[in-house]
Amino acid sequence: MRSSDMGVVLLPPPLSMLMLVLLLLPVASASEAEHRLFQYLFEDYNEIIRPVANVSHPVIIQFEVSMSQLVKVDEVNQIMETNLWLKQIWNDYKLKWKPSDYQGVEFMRVPAEKIWKPDIVLYNNADGDFQVDDKTKALLKYTGEVTWIPPAIFKSSCKIDVTYFPFDYQNCTMKFGSWSYDKAKIDLVLIGSSMNLKDYWESGEWAIIKAPGYKHEIKYNCCEEIYQDITYSLYIRRLPLFYTINLIIPCLLISFLTVLVFYLPSDCGEKVTLCISVLLSLTVFLLVITETIPSTSLVIPLIGEYLLFTMIFVTLSIVITVFVLNVHYRTPTTHTMPTWVKAVFLNLLPRVMFMTRPTSTEEDAPKARNFYGAELSNLNCFSRADSKSCKEGYPCQDGTCGYCHHRRVKISNFSANLTRSSSSESVDAVLSLSALSPEIKEAIQSVKYIAENMKAQNVAKEEQKALESQ
């Protein structure tokens, strides 16, 4: 019957059922053949007995490990977690058949717990689960070849060396072998010379350099038999970009701030605060590193030693800063600088550090002496005002020297400059004049004392500043 609307040929129901039966018949026939094959293979099969015709012959096991993922490396607990596929191939003479007797069936998949398996375990397991999960299926071939590739997540013990953290390399070994059968019972054969990394999923923290495999034969103290094992050495390198950006660069920048402490002026009041802030920051970074590395006293990472010595230097900078501030706020009225301090910090160290002290104001002393010499001559002229003639031929007018009258205008400048004089010789010369009244002499003596005291204070402050600059 043909449908006019859809253009589809519709078969009668009996014919449709017949075609469906014809299509499903080969599938049912193949399933029936596999069912008969399974009953034939496991009718008298014992999964405990080794599959060898002669009990003195070993079972040859071809073994290979494929790395799927390096899950993590726990540096603190020294454990490496990996996702592996354990490929094991051996021949079981009890599992042979003729494909022609079972409609050409050459392969068959059966549960792994139904067949004999070599009890290969990870010797250096760190979580107590030594064996793999046997809930997977094994592939049987008509020749008797058995291929079993169970996946497993292993936590193996690994000795971590963090000397060059975070630029470190680690060598983690994984030792596989039979727990029950010695060399006379099974013979392990390594497939290839290294671990299979074709299906490896790259890790964001570690890079696998190489993973060679080796076969060993060891005689343990517990037993007289010789046992075989296959050991893979996993050489891995840490990717340091994360730690470089988040740990090393901040540590270097914070350590550089310690140098700036000595550049700050003492009057700003933030020298000690900056030192303590740097010290606290380095302490935080040291705690971060302590949480990352193993808790062992055998090895100390270089970055930990660097932070430790940096903290020591920052502590010394705090001590030096306190000493500098103590010297800065001293005054000549309360403290006197010792002679050895002047000799070391003002004479010896400046020459070693190629530093020069500011020039002294004593260079202006000759000019002051010349000025006051002229003023003294003016005063002497006053003392000789009653004479008939004056200096340089000036006539005396009404008991007053014309020269002295001409120079009288400089007397006010003399009294103003007297307080700024750094020479006491001129002041002593003034005091020796008999024309000055006792009140003026007392005032000049007071000015002399104040000037000398201020000069001593200025010299002491300059020495303290020079000492702080060291």
TrEMBL record:
Similarity comment: family membership: Belongs to the ligand-gated ion channel (TC 1.A.9) family.
Residue ranges annotated for the Neurotransmitter-gated ion-channel ligand-binding domain, each copy included: 34-239
One CC-aspect GO term: postsynaptic membrane
Keyword vocabulary terms for this entry: Cell membrane, Disulfide bond, Glycoprotein, Ion channel, Ion transport, Ligand-gated ion channel, Membrane, Receptor, Signal, Synapse, Transmembrane, Transmembrane helix, Transport
Cell location: Synaptic cell membrane
Any one Gene Ontology BP term: modulation of chemical synaptic transmission
Signal peptide: 1-30
UniProt-listed InterPro entries: Neur_chan_lig-bd (IPR006202), Neur_chan_lig-bd_sf (IPR036734), Neur_channel (IPR006201), Neuro-gated_channel_TM_sf (IPR036719), Neuro_actylchol_rec (IPR038050), Neurotrans-gated_channel_TM (IPR006029), Neurotransmitter_ion_chnl_CS (IPR018000), Nicotinic_acetylcholine_rcpt (IPR002394)
Membrane spanning stretches: 241-265, 272-294, 306-327
Domain of life: Eukaryota
Gene Ontology molecular function: acetylcholine-gated monoatomic cation-selective channel activity; transmembrane signaling receptor activity
Sequence ranges assigned to domain Neurotransmitter-gated ion-channel transmembrane in this UniProt record: 247-465
Pfam families: Neur_chan_LBD, Neur_chan_memb
Reactions accelerated catalytically: Na(+)(in) = Na(+)(out); K(+)(in) = K(+)(out); Ca(2+)(in) = Ca(2+)(out)
CDD domains assigned to the protein according to its UniProt record, in alphabetical order: LGIC_ECD_nAChR_A3 (cd19016), LGIC_TM_nAChR (cd19064)
Protein known as: Neuronal acetylcholine receptor subunit alpha-3 isoform X2
Mode of membrane association: Multi-pass membrane protein
Source organism of the structure: Mus caroli (Ryukyu mouse)
Predominant place of localization: membrane
Stored SUPFAM superfamilies: Neurotransmitter-gated ion-channel transmembrane pore, Nicotinic receptor ligand binding domain-like
